[in-house]
Each structure stands twice: as C-alpha cells, then as structure tokens.
Specification:
This protein is an alpha+beta fold and about 100 residues long. It is about 35% helix and about 25% strand. It starts with 6 loop residues before the first helix and ends with a strand.
Length: about 100
C-alpha cells in the first residue's frame, strides 16, 4: 500500500531552509516558500496531485503561522492576438522567519 503525504510532511519540508527563501536583505520577519519545489517533494512522498500538495502546503503554512497570497505571473509561453502576455494566477506562501 502506498504512503500518503500528510500535513506533517509538509510542515517538515517548510521547516527545511532549502525549501524557503529569504525575502529582501535577510532582515525580513518572513520567508517565502519555494512552492513548486515543495509540491514536487510532497508528490514524491505520496501526494496524489499538484492540487493535493498545494492543500497540504496551505495547511502547513497556517499551522506555522504563515499565510498565502495570490500573485499574477506572466506566462512566457503564450502571447494573445494583441501581442500581450496573459498572466497566470498562482498561490504564493510565506512563513515566519523564526
């Protein structure tokens, strides 16, 4: 029987310094989560889908006192008929630095 990833796995991954990045000059009270990296790691640990992995990250972020924002990221692969690049909406997660 396959092992399922849990919120405890996600918390462990978010506490690993290699899965977060310092915001600004390092004096920030928050760290940005490397979401795509953590999604890949949770998939390896048994999360069934990208969506399931994001849900685990969301729960772990809340448990650690962090939060989520929605950001628009330009898509480098698509240009609409007017020549502008559409934006891709994606979640971005943060956790306290300590």
């Amino acid at each position: 029987m396959a092992t399922m990833a849990t919120v405890h796995d996600a918390i462990e991954l978010l506490r690993d310094p290699s899965n977060v990045k310092t915001v600004g000059d390092g004096s920030s009270e928050f760290r940005s989560v490397k979401s795509e990296q953590v999604v890949r790691l949770l998939r390896r640990r048994g999360a069934e889908s990208h969506h399931d992995a994001l849900a685990l990250i969301r729960e772990a972020t809340k448990a650690l006192g962090g939060g989520e924002v929605i950001v628009r990221r330009p898509s480098a692969l698509q240009v609409d008929k007017f020549g502008s690049e559409p934006n891709r909406v994606a979640p971005a997660f943060w956790i306290p630095a300590d």
